[in-house]
Design a protein that fits this description.
Mean pLDDT: 96
CATH superfamily of the largest domain: Gcn5-related N-acetyltransferase (GNAT)
Oligomer: single chain
Number of strands: 13
Shape: globular
Strand content: 25-35%
Distance between the termini: 40 Å
CATH class of the largest domain: Alpha Beta
């Protein structure tokens, strides 16, 4: 059967989210999670649908990609299709040709599961390994310890506080109240929570969003931030512990987070919160800039 590449319409996004959730097993590293779509959803459902690519055979979705940026595709592959050569050939061919509407012209990146046939074909085609990212996971079989700070679940009424902490945690953040409400109305957020951490004076000092993929599956932390005026006091560790507890309540078997390997402070924070590092992952890149004639 021929591999067909497509972009879902708004009505088809729910099917994509559900299929992606089914791939979040208890083993291996998750390259793309329903929570990634959920966090992207803050830009609107139409924009989210337009940033998704699917690869299907005989009506079955075998791979799902999210264009975090026009030059960056993050790919998930069905566990039983990781070594499917026809699928991998189709993905790589689509990624290599700007005319196919997957990646733009110029320098581009494709983040695929490390154990997938896609990675091998990209390497063979001369795509270079990009900077490493560090995934970390925490098993949630046992109850999670108390985080040591006051933690509350964000509601529509407290969304403005949540977005303010986000903007104070990440330079250049554009997370507005409107975008929080748009995200919270999305399908993935039905299995998600935003949390606020407060210090002893009641000030909001940290925030996190957690995404479950369903009972017994891996849950995702994305994003986590500490207010720039309150760093260095253990609030990152505390809110990450709270995030793990929330994911356990939502039925996740493990909690996962991923950060650039060079961000040693973030890695240390997650490890202090009980997360263990897995093997690093790398996207691959190539430059397809057309020389001027």
């Amino acid at each position: 059967m021929t591999i067909e590449t497509g972009t879902p319409d708004v009505a088809g996004l729910d099917r994509v989210v559900e299929r992606l959730g089914q791939w979040q097993g208890v083993d291996g590293v998750v390259q793309l999670h329903p929570g990634d779509l959920g966090w992207f959803w803050r830009f609107g459902v139409e924009h989210t649908a337009g940033a998704v690519r699917t690869w299907q055979r005989d009506g079955e979705i075998l791979a799902i990609g999210l264009l975090d940026e026009p030059d960056m595709l993050r790919l998930a592959v069905a566990p039983d299709a990781l070594r499917d050569d026809d699928l991998a050939q189709a993905v790589v061919a689509d990624a290599a040709d700007p005319a196919r509407g997957v990646l733009i012209e110029g320098k581009v990146y494709l983040d695929a599961p490390m154990e997938s046939r896609v990675q091998e074909l990209l390497s063979a085609a001369g795509w270079e390994a990009d900077d490493p990212w560090q995934p970390l996971v925490r098993d949630l079989a046992a109850p999670v310890e108390d985080p040591g700070i006051a933690v509350e679940v964000v509601t529509a009424e407290s969304a403005a506080v949540r977005t303010a902490v986000q903007r104070a945690s990440f330079d250049g953040s554009t997370f507005t109240d409107e975008r929080w409400h748009t995200m919270a109305a999305g399908t993935p957020y039905a299995r998600a929570r935003c949390l606020l951490g407060r210090d002893a004076q009641g000030e909001a000092v940290a925030a996190v969003t957690v995404w479950s993929a369903g009972e017994g599956r891996i849950g995702l932390i994305e994003p986590m931030g500490v207010h720039r005026d309150h760093r260095g006091r253990g609030y990152g560790q505390a809110i990450t512990v709270a995030a793990a507890a929330a994911l356990r309540e939502l039925g996740a078997s493990r909690a996962m987070v991923c950060t650039p390997s060079f961000n040693v402070g973030a890695v240390a924070t997650y490890r202090a919160a009980g997360f263990e590092p897995l093997a690093e992952i790398r996207a691959r890149s190539t430059d397809r800039t057309t020389d001027a004639v």
